[in-house]
Amino acid sequence: MKPQFRFLIVIMILFAFTATSYANIKTYRVKWGETLYSLLSDKFSPQEILNINKELKELLPDFTLQKGTLIKETENCITLQPNFLTDISINRVADDFELDIVKYPVSTVATVVEGEVTSSLIQAVTDRGESPELAFMLASIYEWEIDFFHALRKGDTFKILVEKQFARNKFVGYGKILAADFLNQGRFIRALYYETAKTKGYFKPDGTSMRKGFLKAPLRYSRISSGYSHSRLHPVTHKVQPHYGVDYAAPTGTPIHATADGRVTEKRYKGYNGNYVKIKHMNGYETLYLHLSRFNKKIHKGSYVRQGDIIGYVGATGRATGPHLDYRIRKNGSYLNPLRFKAPDKKLPSDELENFQMASAVYSERIDNTYIARTNRLTMVR
After folding, report:
1. What is the pLDDT of residues 241-276, one digit of tens each?
2. Domain 106-212+346-382 adopts which CATH fold?
3. pTM, entire model
4. What sign results for the dihedral spanned by CA atoms 130, 136, 140, 143?
């Protein structure tokens, strides 16, 4: 027989063997109502299934069979894949069973992602081949500095030093953002991650926390329908009178968040205010939230709320022409303009500042080097 024909026959045999092997693997997903017993009853006895379940709970205490779990089945083995990082193989070995659990290691690589805004932050991030999740992570760091719904501009740029996690040669998710730069309307803001036993969060290079004492706005709003004024023509009474808050127009039912940590001192219906909540904060500050459609049932007078907690929902109760939130801030009894209000900064204590700067120096250097590399490329092009 000629060598080329002999080679061809070997290839055909290997192909046939491989095709047969794959054909013998049945792949499906767990359906609603299926149990470990129903999956294993064709291959194992009831007592064996009890023993398998017991051993499985000892090795993986948090394991529960979920709808949608991937199953691969051969003549003598069933493999469950509860997630991408775990394989559970239950093998028939003579008159017994063998349980094998494989946990695939996750490797972490810190890399820089950079982009430019053309329409939205999500679009800018996905244009770089990244997941929208990264855009949300970045926005959560800068939410006290940038209004991503109204202050983002075409041409704004960002750089993100982020941990990317890989397993089985595939990207499986993001770790922490270690550092980020954002240029918004010409204003440059750098955020650096810092964590100790007592401190955890993002800080500017001088140790100022990225997390302000107050959120910039208590809700995701459509527009500002009325601003702070000492002499406004009231839309209902048609009389000129002060308006000591900002009216944020938004659909009925839009969640309203506490803008700072504090204690609820009032939660009730009150005449023109309609359903409203008043929160007392540190250092003489108070915030008021008027015309709510309803309250968060978990919030009561005397409750302590954290910044970002939902306290109620947009409505038009009291004297109002449409659904909106009238948001007000007071300092020692005097009203402040919420749109001009500068939230007090939180800073690292001076004895911790040096540790922070040393710990974050490597992150700053990684991002700084991307600017140097870009400058060198431009110089070479010129």
Report:
1. 788 899 999 999 999 999 988 999 999 999 889 999
2. Nuclear Transport Factor 2; Chain: A, (3.10.450)
3. 0.64
4. positive
